[in-house]
Every structure is written in structure tokens, then in C-alpha cells.
Amino acid sequence: MEFYDDAVNNLEAMTVAAQIITSAFLVAIRASGAKAEGASVDRKPSEFSANTPVQVFIVAGQSNAKGYNNAVEYRSGRVDFPRDRRLQPDVLFWENGAGWSALSILDSGAFGPEIGFAFDQAAKRPAERIAIIKYAVGGTGIARSSDYHDYIAALKDFNDQGNNWHPPTAGRKAGVLYQRLIRDVRDALAALDKKHIRWRLAGCLWMQGEHEAGISHKMAEDYDKLLSSFMSAVRTDLNTPVLPFAVGEVNSHNWAYGEIVRKKQVLVCQQDRHAVLVTTTDLSRKGSGGAAHFDADGMLVLGSRFATALSRLSGSDEAEQAAEGDTPGSGPELTR
């Protein structure tokens, strides 16, 4: 659970407790089997030709990008989580510098939007290979805590100690998370280059904003500038000037300033023709991850929506990338 959510979730925990207890028996039975199955999963990716073009997507943000849910709670534990989503050997996956493996849900049963996204995206691009680079950290924001002082009472003296997604600006270093994201993407792409695999950086799935929506009115009001500067810096640092961004809408949890951030997300996507908003307020959040987080059903749908959203951008963006010289092949020089 995200740190600032603790202040509001005690009452909500009581509200969702009945739902959790109702399905607990079925969930417990399925969990024991799922755990054993997950522990024995072979995550070696399937073989493919180095000439097969690889479309690389970034998944980043905070806890709803990470995934605070459990696959055994899918359909309230009454239906097994789809096997063809649980392990996807034809999809490459990179997280936390662990090297390339096959995409799968975690042994714990948790998963992020990459599961539904990759499955749908692979169906849309059968002649290509899909690869996911993921870096997500719960309870984190783009904003630098030192730039704000109007925090909610529960976080009066909040200090992120530099753990934010803020890009470098005006002589100030980038936040730790931004630096790590860029480094992870570069390392993952370099590993593909080492194997002489042709790739294209095809898009970014950004699921974040709850942080700013939950703790500071001024942060929420600034979110359009924060998000725009983040996207611009990522495109520059990864030498992909028209990198498509699918921006996950802040959900309808009772964030203090959620409506403000949602409006700012709309504004950014209206002003940036290489960005598209993905709606989330109707997605299910009834799982053991708490009311702030998408459950297994909601997360699977979220991934599919990301795939649909990026598909709407892909045609024009790929044409523009080619016109600007960002063509598939051994990756571009990554600078800064």
C-alpha cells in the first residue's frame, strides 16, 4: 500500500473487507496451486530470428504500473487466470536489470498492465516481436518534494529524498527514479544490440499521478507542466523525439486533488499529438491490494486499453519516426 494512502484506507479497508472475505475460500484454494505453478515456470523466452523486428515498449510509473493485485482473485476467484496471459514466452521482458526473460506474472500472483498490453499488442503485430522494459515504484511522483510545502496534514514534513521522476532542469540533477529509468532502458536496449537484434522504441505506458493527486494542491495544479517536461525529457534522453505516450488516467479513488490531476492529464494529451489518455475510472478496484489499486480484472482491462490507445498512435508516429531518421535497426545513440 502506498505510504500516503494509509491515512485514508483504514475505513475503506472495512468497506471492502466483506468482498474479500466472500471470495477468500476460493482464492485460498487457487492460491496454493498458483504458487506451486509459478515457482516452476520456465521464464526462458522462445527462440526467434535476429532479423525479426522487435517493438520495445516502456512501462513506468507508481503502484498501479507496478501492480498491487493477485491473479488468483481474477473473477473473484471463481475462474482461473487465463494461461495464455500468465506466461507469454514470445514476449521479452526486462525489469530491474535482471536481463531479458519471458513475460509472466510474478510468483506472488501480482502483475501490471504489461500482461494485458503485451497479449493484445502481440495479436496486433503477429509478424513482430514485443519487448517490455518495466520500471515502476509505488508511492512516487514526478514532482520534487523540496519544491512544495502545502502537504496534507498526514504528510506535513514530507521529503522524498530525491526519489522522484523529475527530469534534470536548470542545473539541478534529475530525480533518482528518472535516472534509473533512463539507465534501465539504455541497458536493456544495449543487451539487444549485443545480440544483434533489430529493435524500435515504440511507446511508453505511463501510469502515475496518484502521488500528486493525493498529497498537495499545488502539485496537482502543476501536473500538466510536470508531465509534459517528463515526457519531453524522456524523448530527448532516448533519442526518440516522437515517442508515443499512453497516459493512464488517475483512478476515481478519493484522492484529495484527483479531479485536478485528471483535468491536467487531459490537457497534456490534447496539447501533445503523440500522447493519448487511457481512461481508468470505471476499472475494478475490489481486490486485496486495496481501493487505491486495480484488481486482477481491472489491471487486465487496463493493459488492453493501453494496447488500443497506442495502436491509435502507431501509424502516424512510425511514419514520422522514419522521416526523422529513427528507423528500426541497431538502436540510436543514446545521449545525455
What does this entry look like structurally?
- There is one protein chain.
- 42% of the residues lie in helices and 14% in strands.
- By secondary structure, the chain is an alpha/beta fold.
- It has a single domain (3-323), classed as 3-Layer(aba) Sandwich (Rossmann fold), CATH 3.40.50.1110.
- A seven-stranded mixed beta sheet has the order 3-2-4-1-5-6-7, with helices on both faces.
- Helix 9 links the parallel strand 6 and strand 7 (275-278).
- Helix 4 packs across helix 10.
- The protein starts with 5 loop residues before the first helix and ends in a 13-residue tail after the last helix.
Q: Total number of helical segments?
A: 10
Strand-pairing-aware structural class: alpha/beta
Query: Helical amount among residues, as a percent range?
Result: 40-55%
Sheet bearing the most strands, described?
7 strands, mixed
- CATH topology name, in short, is Rossmann fold
First-residue to last-residue Cα separation? 34 Å
Number of strands: 7
Look at the structure and name the CATH superfamily: SGNH hydrolase
Provide mean pLDDT, rounded. Answer: 85
Shape: globular
Strand order of the largest sheet: 3-2-4-1-5-6-7
Name the CATH architecture: 3-Layer(aba) Sandwich
The H-and-E topology, N to C, reads as HEHHEEHEHEHHHEHEH
- Relative strand content: 5-15%
Poorly predicted runs are: 1-39, 325-336
